[in-house]
Amino acid sequence: MHLISNNIEHIFFDLDHTLWDFEKNSALSFQYIFQQAGLSIDMAAFLKVYNPINDNYWKLYREDKIPKEALRTGRLVDTFEQLNITYNTALVTTLADAYIQHLPQNNYLLEGVEECLEYLNKNYKLHIITNGFSEVQHVKLKKSGIKDYFLSITTSEEAGVKKPHPLIFEKALHKAAAENKNALMIGDNLEADILGAKQFGMQSVYFNTRGEKHNYNGKQIAKLSELKHIL
To answer: Rg of the chain's alpha carbons, rounded to an integer?
Structure first.
């Protein structure tokens, strides 16, 4: 039974945490750059503190409350301070740059991504809308082997605004030659992806990867394989 309107022609995916396994790839990148810098840091302890700090910095970045550079360095400074790790500005800058450069070198995908894209590609036109940095998002797609599935890629830096701003959805649909009534958004961020798409008149599926508790009663999945039952 199709639970979503059968007029869908275009499907827009978020990238990080939705297709690309950000947490795993990020952890591997930190492990590498810390080793290269000669730092002995317990990764489990680091990530436990860093991940929520990073989430908060991305929220501030989405809301245009901080610039890109403040995101890239501030999340490290706050983590180091909480863990009482000695640092200086030069070290943080070096690590922040190395992290961005190395991050696309690890390209683990979430479970079932390729099977999902292969299935959907037969009947729908697929696209990407991402708030991630342009210089790494295209590399991630290419090196993870899934770039060819997507007819268009729209980044927030290209659009000049970030999800959930309506303009990024407008630009993405224009680029894809799609109409909002024929478009579906799939993403892991309830605010940026799902409510942003709804505000622009698109249908959506919330990929609740972390099993978060919320008041949202729209369509949601816990695994990408569940899309086969609704699309």
So the answer is: 18
For residue 78, CA distances in Å to 46, 81, 83, 99, 105 come to 11, 5, 9, 16, 25
How far from the centroid of its chain's Cα atoms is residue 228's Cα?
A: 22
pTM: 0.93
Give whole-number Cα distances, 38 to 95, 135, 139, 173, 229, in Å. Answer: 11, 27, 27, 46, 49
The structure tokens listed for 177 are: 């030659």
Residue type, 132: G
| pLDDT per residue as tens digits for the range 25-38 | 999 999 999 999 99
pLDDT tens track for 124-168:
999 999 999 888 999 999 999 999 999 999 999 999 999 999 999
Nearest residue to 102 via CA among 51, 38, 24, 28 = 28
For residue range 179-227, list pLDDT tens digits in order: 999 999 999 999 999 999 999 999 999 999 888 888 888 999 999 999 9
